[in-house]
Amino acid sequence: MATVTRYSLDAALADPDAVAATIALDGVVIVEGLLAAAVVERVNDEVAASVAAADPDESLFNPVMSAFHGPNTRQVAGVPGLSRTFAVDVMCHPLYLALCDRILLPSCSRYQLNLGHWLQRGPGAEEQWMHRDELVWNDVPWPHPELQVASVIAFVDFTKDNGATRVVPGSHTWADRGLPAVEQMATPVEPDQIAYAEMPAGSAVIYSGGTIHAGGSNVTDIPRRAAHLSYTLGWLRTEENNYLSAPPAYAATLPREAQELLGYAIHDSIGRGGGYLGMVRMQDPVDLLQRGEL
Prior knowledge:
The protein is an alpha+beta fold. It has 2 domains: 236 residues, q2cbj1_9rhob like domain (Jelly Rolls, Sandwich); 48 residues, no CATH class. It is built from 12 helices and 12 strands. A hairpin with a 7-residue loop joins strand 11 and strand 12. It is globular. The protein starts with 5 loop residues before the first strand and ends with a helix.
């Protein structure tokens, strides 16, 4: 069975260069103790009503998505718009931002939240299909720079039995990464290439958008609560429309850093010899938001 390099939060914050280098080499790391127990508890409490109301049988925009997640998974999208703790203490976590500075910022003037998505895989949930998250941008020609920093955060202890994320270290370097999505999804993965992200609540498995991974099967009677949190280049369209899931009236109550990550800041590449994206009335929307003009 494959293994994943582990860091404690203290070590990771002290040397984010080492963590970023491990992701570049292996495609994945585990950071234990990323979130304090109080943060885990508050996020669990703040999303509880939405998770309870989520219908695993709800029709999604594409039937493939229902098959991908399966009938035993409760999904809640737009978590930063539902949990202020998630928006401030998780989405803006200094380690995530340090890694995005190193992995994404060389290819953009500003990175942004891609997705903050709750995935509660209940008893009976089967293994997800192995996949790369960056396939949502499969039309970007290969080779390309890293498009995404992705993660799964444990909000209960992750074990192999309750569906810990399965990840394939090194798969971000495989030759199939440049193939069409359908061919990548068909790439065989051998059991000894798979590592299980077993880790205590508050930890995260952080990986490249090009690293093959999937949710595991839950053969216990305890739901596996987790959040997928990912960031992408500021000039790419995000998986979720974060302006609608965290609308201006709510976003205005958040710190500026959170507003910027949610996409309310302009992507200004003029200083890099480019142009700009996302202006409103020829102004930076985050400034308008700060002044109460949105």
